[in-house]
Amino acid sequence: MLIDTDNPVKRHRISEFAEHEIDFAETSEANDSDCFPSANIGEIVTFSYPFDTDAVSLWRQWVQRDGQITHGMDPDFVLPFLNGGEIAKDALLIMHFHNTRCELAVVVVPDNSRLWPSQSWRMFTHEHIDVYGFLKESTGQTYDRFFDLVKGGLSNEGINLSRLSFLNIQGLQSGERKFLEKFTRFNAYFDLAGPAAYTVPGKLNRNIKRYAKKLADCYGPSTLKVEPSREDNMKTFFDVEASGWKDRENSAIRSDGRLRRAYLAAARDDDSNCRAHVFTLWAGHEAVSSAYGLVYESHISLLKIGFDERFAQFSPGSLLISEVFEHARAVGVTRLFFSTYPDWAKRWKPDLRKKMDVHIFSDDNIGRYRYLFARFVTNTKQFLRWKSGMGQS
Fold first, then answer.
1. Cross-strand pairs, 335
2. pTM value?
3. C-alpha triplet 188, 102, 297: angle, nearest 5°
4. How buried is residue 164: exposed, middle or buried, by Cβ count under 10 Å (0-12/13-18/19+)?
5. Are 52 and 158 within one domain?
6. Which of 113, 167, 123 is nearest to 147 (CA)?
7. Residue of 238, 232, 226 lying closest to 275 (CA atoms)
8. pLDDT of residue 100
9. Cα(38)–Cα(33) distance, rounded to whole angstroms?
10. 162 and 25, same structural domain?
11. Of 209, 213, 334, 379, which has the most beta carbons under 10 Å away?
12. Is pLDDT of 227 > 80?
């Protein structure tokens, strides 16, 4: 079903559905809803951009119920980075409903492939959204499930899908369809509860305590302030993040007006379940280091960490992370994510989860041809790299 939100009849049906107080533990009343007539057997609904606000509300409810979805699939973080971009006009929100509630939602955009461009789509990505998918693998979370969802959503618009691409995806398993995947990088994380709860490595912990004492001797006791993102503390974060080379090379977040607005808008909605937070380490009246993160019920994702280069001698980033660990444990968070795995994170000895770039192909003739051609290109590139390496040795 393609929802045309300019159509008052269809628009009313979405509004009526979203405004019902649904008890997710009981579906008997919800099953009587006439908003999605085939919801009992599942229905795929497609929304064109700008997305219907009630549909986004239902998307958000799915994230709240599941609790294991990364920020790359969370509307409160994804939409601010989509809004205003050139690609937004072609974006589609595709949702699967079962028993009148959202069970899966993705935003897809054209992939601009040279081969069959109209049949090539990808999940919306942005360089500041580090990871997509789920925090852990579960039964039924397969490449096929996502392909079938997007294929059904595109068919609502008369589009055939022969290749679907995901970047930086984790927590998904292979299915029956042909696919190609490429390792991109790791997602670093720390389990903070249970018998195997993380502890900072001994040498690093001793260095942190030494640096903390030196900082306190020079500037006064250090304090971690954790607050929902607001104009004032986001200004502090932007200023700290821009310290040093980023400001000189004009690559800081505050140097890009659209990017700055996206960070300010992320998770600012009163109905949001994952408020963006700013974590700032203060020494006296000086902001030493600062991080931008998303706080969920059971986990925190630190997306950006910066420090004021004037305090580089005190290892300000390590001091901040150490304090965030203590804060997370105090509020009952069981897992902390870095979302990426930069070189400096190796000394923390985190657990790691692979992130993959994945291309999934349809099982028709076009899909099979594209899969074989993509494999040929990949194998040829690998052979040429190997041959080049042999020549250099």
1. 191, 299
2. 0.85
3. 40
4. buried
5. yes
6. 123
7. 226
8. 79
9. 10
10. yes
11. 334
12. yes
